[in-house]
């Protein structure tokens, strides 16, 4: 078991202040967790909306392409139709059989072109109808998502604001305590907290470290009880304290789980 010598201050007083800070830090960790959860919820909603908006943009661009294709095809069809009209006019004024045949062939060719073009336009029309139906569905999803998320978003924002306000208050309380804390023990505490993100000043319960639940020896327990120096759990490095110590009675370190504020400050 490692030990830590602290100046003349009473170890119990030193630990009592650190324990008060620890309770604030546990609340802060809880706040951060809640905040992260709310932010994730908000992130999910926004991701769904962003995805729908992206799909809508893609569809819009596809529809634009289809419409452009359609316009071009219609222009081409018009040209073919004009060509056919011209060929028909020529046909009536032709005298020679060979020329007539050549023209007929050209007309048959143009007819085929016209059929192809008409088919292509019809296909484009079908495609456009499908795409427009799809974009309509996307828009409906987007509308309903936006509508249903508005309430939730407001709720989350409200909670986040509340968490931020309460977090600020916690920080202020903490600052006031840190000034009173033994700097050496406080820096050890902060290092441990950073590593464990959990309570690092813990009572001995049933001869076990209540942080890691590993049994301690009677000698370890005695050292903690004597409270002459800071004692660390040799298994998890947490700072140990003894809850039955008389000096802890009526303080935040009282044996019950419901810790009260300290009555006196030194
Ligand atoms: Zn331990």
Set down the secondary structure blueprint.
Elements: E1 3-4, H1 11-93, H2 97-180, H3 183-196, E2 201-205, E3 208-209, H4 218-226, E4 230-232, E5 239-241
The structure holds zinc ion (ZN).
Structure summarized in a few sentences:
The protein has 266 residues and is mostly helical. 71% of the residues lie in helices and 6% in strands. Bound molecules: zinc ion.
Q: What level of helicity do the residues show?
A: over 70%
Query: Per CATH, which architecture of the largest domain?
Result: Orthogonal Bundle
Beta content comes to: 5-15%
Radius of gyration: 41 Å
Query: What structural category characterises the helix and strand content?
Result: mainly alpha
Helices and strands, in order, run as EHHHEEHEE
The largest pleated sheet is described as: 5 strands, mixed
Q: Strand order, main sheet: write it out.
A: 1-4-5-2-3
> What's the structural domain tally?
2
Beginning-to-end CA distance, first to last residue: 29 Å
Folded structure, characterized:
With 266 residues, the protein is mainly α. The protein folds into two domains: 3-28 and 177-248, Helix Hairpins; 36-172, Helix Hairpins, CATH 1.10.287.1490. It has helices spanning 11-93, 97-180, 183-196, 218-226; strands at residues 3-4, 201-205, 208-209, 230-232, 239-241. Strand 2 and strand 3 (208-209) form a beta hairpin. Helix 1 (11-93) runs antiparallel to helix 2. The chain is rod-shaped. Mean pLDDT is 88; it is low at 254-266. The protein binds zinc ion (ZN).
């Amino acid at each position: 078991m490692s030990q830590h010598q602290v100046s003349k201050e009473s170890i119990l007083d030193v630990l009592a202040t650190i324990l008060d800070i620890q309770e604030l830090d546990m609340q802060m960790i809880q706040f951060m967790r809640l905040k992260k959860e709310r932010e994730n919820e908000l992130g999910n909603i926004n991701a769904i909306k962003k995805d729908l908006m992206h799909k809508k943009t893609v569809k819009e661009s596809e529809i634009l392409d289809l419409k452009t294709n359609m316009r071009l095809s219609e222009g081409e069809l018009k040209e073919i139709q004009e060509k056919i009209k011209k060929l028909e006019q020529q046909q009536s004024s032709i005298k020679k059989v060979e020329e007539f045949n050549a023209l007929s062939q050209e007309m048959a060719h143009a007819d085929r072109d016209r059929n192809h073009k008409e088919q292509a336009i019809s296909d484009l029309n079908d495609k456009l109808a499908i795409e427009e139906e799809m974009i309509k569905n996307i828009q409906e999803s987007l509308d309903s998502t936006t509508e249903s998320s508005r309430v939730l978003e407001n709720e989350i924002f409200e909670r986040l604001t509340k968490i931020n306000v309460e977090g600020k208050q916690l920080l202020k309380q903490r600052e006031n305590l840190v000034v009173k804390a033994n700097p050496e023990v406080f820096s050890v505490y902060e290092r441990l907290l950073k590593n464990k993100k959990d309570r690092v000043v813990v009572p001995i319960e049933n001869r076990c470290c209540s942080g890691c639940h590993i049994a301690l020896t009677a000698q370890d327990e005695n050292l903690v009880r004597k409270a002459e120096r800071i004692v660390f759990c040799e298994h998890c490095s947490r700072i140990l304290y003894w809850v039955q110590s008389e000096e802890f009675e009526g303080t935040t370190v009282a044996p019950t789980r419901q810790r009260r504020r300290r009555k006196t400050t030194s």
